[in-house]
Design brief:
The protein is α/β, with parallel strands linked by helices. It has five helices and eight strands; from the N terminus they run ββββαββαβαβαα. An eight-stranded mixed beta sheet has the order 2-1-8-7-6-5-4-3. It is globular and about 50 Å long.
Length: about 170
């Protein structure tokens, strides 16, 4: 079972991510539905505590503007660890669309990206066996990757002011 890094703790991931071409009956367990499925079926999906929506890297989050206030869970898929579009999507979801629920990174992410993902607004990270092995080889705890740097210069989702403005305060 894939692991989830959430609140700086590794837990079992009880959520299922349904495939992009999913078209059927939802499972009983909590699940992330693909964006297209959500858009076609949202009026029939009644359990916001057990249903989240996932976006692929090429999908625009603006199509969720009307729904974002009622969603508790969103996920962004990273098709490869080299694909940075998900970072921008996460930042848009948090800053422009004011999403306050759980924003999860799914797909091919590596531990070295966790700090940067958190700065873009992600607060949960679905990690596969490869990512867990990478951390073990480096003798790091996954939660340590969230604190790679103690001071940052730029503003971000979780630090609204750049360093030079924080020093003046």
């Amino acid at each position: 079972m894939p692991k989830l890094l959430k609140n700086k703790t590794i837990v079992d991931n009880g959520w299922q991510v349904l495939p992009k071409d999913f078209d059927g009956v939802l499972p009983e367990a909590p699940c992330f539905v693909p964006l297209d499925y959500w858009l076609e079926n949202k009026q029939n999906l009644q359990n916001p505590g057990a249903i989240g929506v996932w976006l692929d890297a090429e999908q625009e989050p603006e199509v969720l503007v009307e729904d974002i206030a009622g969603l508790q869970y969103l996920a962004v898929n990273f098709p490869t660890f080299m694909d940075g579009r998900g970072f921008s999507i996460g930042r848009l979801i948090r800053e422009r669309y004011q999403f306050t629920g759980e924003l999860r990174a799914i797909g091919h992410i590596v531990p070295d990206q966790l700090f940067y993902l958190s700065r873009c607004g992600f607060d949960a990270f679905c990690l596969d066996a490869l990512a867990l092995d990478h951390a073990a080889e480096e003798n790091h705890k996954l939660e340590d990757y969230l604190a790679t740097f103690s001071v940052t210069y730029q503003a971000c989702v979780n630090e609204q002011q750049p360093l030079f403005r924080r020093r003046q305060a």
